[in-house]
Write a structure and sequence with these properties.
Helix content is 17%, strand content 51%. It has helices spanning 18-27, 32-35, 134-143, and strands spanning 5-14, 40-47, 56-63, 68-80, 85-93, 99-111, 114-125. The protein has a seven-stranded antiparallel sheet.
């Protein structure tokens, strides 16, 4: 049975501007654990420089579906400062036990006094019994 690329998406409205959100997630994701330490234990730069394409970051997080610590190593594949968007690819970690590929796109767009952050997960399951990552998308929404 061949697997197929699947997609999950959600929008989150926040009070920050698109530029503020984009800067935070692109150049300072290691600060997320300061405001959400129960969900993110750390984010470290593994290769490259903060905010640069080709850089690799390493997340320590708690995926509340499983209630235990998880890790993910992500590669910044694209950063578009004009569109306030980021493309990440998971290259190592617990997610790859369930998914052959896992990519994340985050885009912040103006809305009123703040912005709407659009999260997209594109993934390919290792087999048909793997569940869609709805709770991980929920975690991303909470962190926004």
């Amino acid at each position: 049975m061949s697997s197929k690329l699947e997609k999950l998406e959600t929008d989150v409205e926040i009070k920050a501007s698109p530029v503020q959100f984009h800067e935070y997630f692109t150049r300072r994701p290691h600060h997320i654990s300061n405001v959400s330490s129960d969900k993110i234990q750390g984010c470290d730069l593994h290769e490259g420089d903060w905010g640069n394409v080709g850089s690799v970051i390493y997340w320590n997080y708690v995926w509340f579906e499983y209630g235990k610590a998880k890790v993910a190593k992500e590669l910044f594949e694209a950063i578009d400062d004009e569109k306030n968007s980021i493309n990440l690819k998971v290259v190592e970690g617990d997610l790859l036990e369930h998914y052959k590929t896992f990519k994340i796109t985050i885009q912040a767009s103006p809305k009123g006094e703040g912005c709407t952050v659009h999260w997209t997960f594109e993934y390919e399951k290792v087999h048909g019994d793997v569940e869609d990552p709805h709770t991980l998308l929920q975690l991303a929404a909470v962190l926004t």
